[in-house]
Amino acid sequence: MYAASLTSALEFICNICGSPNRRAVQELTREDPSCSACGSNVRTRGILRVLSNELFGVDLTLPEFPRVKSLRGIGTSDKEAYAVRLAEKFDYRNTFFHREPRLDLANLPEEESGRYDFLISSEVLEHVPPPVETALQNASRLLKPSGVFVLTVPYSIEPAGVERFPQLHQYGLVEVGGRILLVNRTPEDALQIFEDLVFHGGRGSTLEMREFNEDGLKALLTSAGFCDVRMCAEDYRPFGIVHAESWSLPIAARKGPFALGRGAVRDILEEWRDLRRKSTSEMEQIESSVWHRIGRKLGFVR
């Protein structure tokens, strides 16, 4: 029975590492770590739950994912807690903007087009330089026709989003009088100076380029080539996923209906076969043990 009040404790399994947890519901926030083992939060657990449902149609913890090396995925600065585990399950690699292995969604290499079954991008798109449409179109280009884009970005339910630097072209950050400013030269050679900048991760770290709004974000994803865009608002308490807000939720954006290829089906069936053989072997060992024979004789087991 899962807790209904904010002050009661909720017992859940972290769907990233599989560890049991017990937390007060008010501690289950979007960004604060709430798994005592891997440090996952509601956002990261929400991402992996969406991926599980999009790939397999059921709620699985990441340790329960079948090993399907014929499914190819790519991440953009994914958290190590789930990136390492995804690489064990799939043909998956994590990428970064500032270090190797590199991937710039605003400048996609042609050889990357159409290679991936899934793409994960969490808290990235609010930081890419404008126009953000380019990054979203490239996200679509990365995917196979049946691919899925799983993402999170901060977004509001306001009537319109905010593009903070719409004419960004040649720019840099400078510190003046203890304040960090952005200096930009537009394509028309006009000089702009911006103050009161918003950074994620601390002063001077990752600059926020925009704040999306829900309707605008859906429209941008649709225009980029995604035919099915779903804001995943539902809680899932068995995994400790309780959304305190009705915005900035995990999103699943599909290019087309998902279907496992022959290679993926083969991988899943081979894993099922191996698990069945292991289970049968273990049962045979148990049944041949002295304790099992004694238990059967005493009527404790059949």
- Gyration radius (Cα, Å) is 23 Å
Strand order of the largest sheet: 4-3-5-6-16-15
Q: Kindly identify the CATH topology of the largest domain.
A: Rossmann fold
CATH 2nd-level architecture of the largest domain: 3-Layer(aba) Sandwich
Mean pLDDT: 90
The level of helicity is 25-40%
> Helix/strand-derived class?
alpha/beta
What does this 3D model show about the protein?
The protein has 302 residues and is α/β, with parallel strands linked by helices. The chain has 3 domains: 1-162 and 208-259, Vaccinia Virus protein VP39 (Rossmann fold, 3-Layer(aba) Sandwich), CATH 3.40.50; 165-206, no CATH class; 261-302, no CATH class. 27% of the residues lie in helices and 26% in strands. The protein is built from 6 helices and 16 strands. It has helices at 42-56, 80-89, 132-142, 214-223, 262-287, 290-298; strands spanning 9-13, 20-24, 68-76, 90-95, 116-122, 143-152, 155-156, 162-163, 170-176, 179-185, 191-194, 199-200, 206-207, 210-213, 228-231, 251-254. Strands 4-3-5-6-16-15 form a 6-stranded mixed β-sheet, with helices on both faces. A 3-stranded mixed β-sheet has the order 7-14-8. Strands 9-10-11 form a 3-stranded antiparallel β-sheet, with no helix packed on it. Strand 12 and strand 13 form a beta hairpin. The longest helix has 26 residues, at 262-287. The protein is globular, with a radius of gyration of 23 Å. The two termini are 33 Å apart. 28% of the residues are buried. The model has no long low-confidence stretch (mean pLDDT 90).
Topology of this structure?
Layout: E1 9-13, E2 20-24, H1 42-56, E3 68-76, H2 80-89, E4 90-95, E5 116-122, H3 132-142, E6 143-152, E7 155-156, E8 162-163, E9 170-176, E10 179-185, E11 191-194, E12 199-200, E13 206-207, E14 210-213, H4 214-223, E15 228-231, E16 251-254, H5 262-287, H6 290-298
Parallel strand pairs: 3-4, 3-5, 5-6, 7-14
Antiparallel strand pairs: 1-2, 6-16, 8-14, 9-10, 10-11, 12-13, 15-16
